[in-house]
Design brief:
168 residues, alpha+beta, five-stranded mixed β-sheet, 47% helix
Length: 168
Protein backbone atom coordinates (compact mmCIF):
# COMPACT_ATOMS: atom_id res chain seq x y z
CA UNK A 1 0.00 0.00 0.00
CA UNK A 2 2.81 2.41 0.97
CA UNK A 3 4.62 1.55 -2.28
CA UNK A 4 1.46 2.25 -4.31
CA UNK A 5 1.00 5.63 -2.63
CA UNK A 6 4.65 6.51 -3.21
CA UNK A 7 4.27 5.47 -6.87
CA UNK A 8 1.18 7.63 -7.27
CA UNK A 9 2.94 10.55 -5.57
CA UNK A 10 5.96 10.13 -7.85
CA UNK A 11 3.74 10.00 -10.95
CA UNK A 12 1.96 13.18 -9.83
CA UNK A 13 5.33 14.86 -9.28
CA UNK A 14 6.56 13.86 -12.74
CA UNK A 15 3.38 15.14 -14.40
CA UNK A 16 3.62 18.39 -12.42
CA UNK A 17 7.30 18.79 -13.29
CA UNK A 18 6.70 18.26 -16.98
CA UNK A 19 3.86 20.80 -17.11
CA UNK A 20 5.61 23.71 -15.39
CA UNK A 21 8.35 25.63 -17.11
CA UNK A 22 9.01 28.11 -14.36
CA UNK A 23 9.30 26.18 -11.13
CA UNK A 24 8.80 22.73 -9.79
CA UNK A 25 8.62 21.27 -6.31
CA UNK A 26 8.43 17.79 -4.94
CA UNK A 27 7.87 16.32 -1.52
CA UNK A 28 9.13 12.90 -0.48
CA UNK A 29 9.93 11.19 2.80
CA UNK A 30 13.68 10.78 3.18
CA UNK A 31 13.16 7.93 5.69
CA UNK A 32 12.63 5.38 2.91
CA UNK A 33 15.47 6.57 0.69
CA UNK A 34 19.15 5.75 1.03
CA UNK A 35 21.64 8.56 1.54
CA UNK A 36 23.77 9.41 -1.50
CA UNK A 37 27.26 10.84 -1.80
CA UNK A 38 27.39 14.57 -1.08
CA UNK A 39 29.51 16.91 -3.20
CA UNK A 40 31.30 19.17 -0.74
CA UNK A 41 33.50 21.31 -3.00
CA UNK A 42 32.12 23.99 -5.25
CA UNK A 43 33.84 27.18 -6.36
CA UNK A 44 31.41 30.09 -6.66
CA UNK A 45 31.75 32.81 -9.28
CA UNK A 46 31.17 36.44 -8.44
CA UNK A 47 27.85 36.32 -10.35
CA UNK A 48 26.67 33.26 -8.39
CA UNK A 49 27.49 34.91 -5.06
CA UNK A 50 25.77 38.11 -6.20
CA UNK A 51 22.63 36.23 -7.25
CA UNK A 52 22.40 34.49 -3.86
CA UNK A 53 22.97 37.81 -2.11
CA UNK A 54 20.17 39.47 -4.11
CA UNK A 55 17.76 36.62 -3.35
CA UNK A 56 18.55 36.78 0.36
CA UNK A 57 18.24 40.58 0.44
CA UNK A 58 14.81 40.28 -1.16
CA UNK A 59 13.73 37.57 1.30
CA UNK A 60 14.84 39.69 4.28
CA UNK A 61 13.03 42.75 2.84
CA UNK A 62 9.73 40.85 3.04
CA UNK A 63 10.38 39.35 6.48
CA UNK A 64 11.65 35.91 5.47
CA UNK A 65 14.72 34.01 6.62
CA UNK A 66 17.91 34.04 4.60
CA UNK A 67 18.86 30.86 2.82
CA UNK A 68 22.14 29.09 3.44
CA UNK A 69 24.07 27.87 0.43
CA UNK A 70 24.92 24.20 0.10
CA UNK A 71 27.69 23.23 -2.31
CA UNK A 72 25.99 19.97 -3.25
CA UNK A 73 22.89 21.86 -4.43
CA UNK A 74 25.06 24.21 -6.48
CA UNK A 75 26.80 21.19 -8.03
CA UNK A 76 23.41 19.73 -9.04
CA UNK A 77 22.51 23.17 -10.48
CA UNK A 78 25.76 23.18 -12.46
CA UNK A 79 25.03 19.71 -13.83
CA UNK A 80 21.69 20.97 -15.14
CA UNK A 81 23.26 24.04 -16.76
CA UNK A 82 25.80 21.80 -18.48
CA UNK A 83 22.95 19.57 -19.71
CA UNK A 84 21.06 22.57 -21.10
CA UNK A 85 24.17 23.91 -22.85
CA UNK A 86 25.15 20.56 -24.39
CA UNK A 87 21.59 19.92 -25.56
CA UNK A 88 20.86 23.55 -26.55
CA UNK A 89 17.65 23.64 -24.49
CA UNK A 90 16.17 25.65 -21.64
CA UNK A 91 13.99 23.40 -19.51
CA UNK A 92 13.48 21.53 -16.24
CA UNK A 93 14.27 18.09 -17.69
CA UNK A 94 15.30 15.59 -15.01
CA UNK A 95 14.11 17.85 -12.17
CA UNK A 96 12.68 14.80 -10.43
CA UNK A 97 16.11 13.11 -10.47
CA UNK A 98 17.80 16.29 -9.14
CA UNK A 99 15.23 16.70 -6.39
CA UNK A 100 15.40 13.02 -5.42
CA UNK A 101 19.18 13.29 -5.20
CA UNK A 102 18.91 16.31 -2.88
CA UNK A 103 16.24 14.56 -0.80
CA UNK A 104 18.35 11.40 -0.53
CA UNK A 105 21.72 13.05 0.00
CA UNK A 106 20.71 15.95 2.24
CA UNK A 107 17.43 14.85 3.80
CA UNK A 108 15.47 17.66 2.15
CA UNK A 109 11.73 17.71 2.69
CA UNK A 110 10.90 19.90 -0.32
CA UNK A 111 12.82 21.05 -3.36
CA UNK A 112 12.06 23.74 -5.94
CA UNK A 113 13.88 25.05 -8.99
CA UNK A 114 14.15 28.24 -11.00
CA UNK A 115 15.99 28.49 -14.29
CA UNK A 116 16.80 31.51 -16.41
CA UNK A 117 18.48 32.03 -19.74
CA UNK A 118 20.24 34.87 -21.50
CA UNK A 119 20.22 37.46 -18.71
CA UNK A 120 23.35 39.59 -18.68
CA UNK A 121 23.51 40.10 -14.93
CA UNK A 122 22.40 38.54 -11.66
CA UNK A 123 20.22 41.59 -11.00
CA UNK A 124 18.39 41.13 -14.32
CA UNK A 125 17.83 37.40 -13.71
CA UNK A 126 16.55 37.90 -10.15
CA UNK A 127 14.26 40.72 -11.28
CA UNK A 128 12.83 38.50 -14.03
CA UNK A 129 12.19 35.74 -11.47
CA UNK A 130 10.47 38.22 -9.15
CA UNK A 131 8.28 39.41 -12.05
CA UNK A 132 7.13 35.83 -12.68
CA UNK A 133 4.57 34.55 -10.15
CA UNK A 134 5.79 30.95 -10.20
CA UNK A 135 9.48 31.86 -9.93
CA UNK A 136 8.70 34.38 -7.21
CA UNK A 137 6.82 31.66 -5.32
CA UNK A 138 10.04 29.65 -5.14
CA UNK A 139 12.09 32.65 -4.03
CA UNK A 140 9.53 33.36 -1.30
CA UNK A 141 9.03 29.66 -0.49
CA UNK A 142 9.40 27.86 2.83
CA UNK A 143 13.00 26.89 2.20
CA UNK A 144 16.13 26.86 4.35
CA UNK A 145 18.87 26.33 1.78
CA UNK A 146 19.75 26.88 -1.83
CA UNK A 147 22.38 26.50 -4.48
CA UNK A 148 23.02 28.17 -7.78
CA UNK A 149 25.11 27.78 -10.88
CA UNK A 150 25.58 30.19 -13.74
CA UNK A 151 27.32 28.91 -16.85
CA UNK A 152 28.06 30.54 -20.18
CA UNK A 153 27.56 28.65 -23.42
CA UNK A 154 31.01 28.89 -25.04
CA UNK A 155 29.47 28.92 -28.53
CA UNK A 156 26.75 31.55 -28.04
CA UNK A 157 28.03 33.48 -25.01
CA UNK A 158 24.57 33.25 -23.41
CA UNK A 159 24.23 32.60 -19.68
CA UNK A 160 22.27 29.73 -18.15
CA UNK A 161 21.07 30.03 -14.54
CA UNK A 162 19.82 27.15 -12.38
CA UNK A 163 18.76 27.99 -8.83
CA UNK A 164 17.60 25.11 -6.63
CA UNK A 165 15.88 25.62 -3.28
CA UNK A 166 15.52 23.06 -0.48
CA UNK A 167 13.92 22.81 2.93
CA UNK A 168 16.18 20.73 5.15
Amino acid sequence: MKTNLLGIALLFTVVFAMNSCSSDATETSSDTLAKKEIVENYVYSTDELETMKLINEYRVSIGLNTLEKINHISFKSEEHNNYMIVNNVVNHNDFVARSENIINALGAKTVGENIAYNFSSPKAAVQAWLNSPTHKENIEGDYTNFGIAIRVNPTTGKKYYTNIFAKI
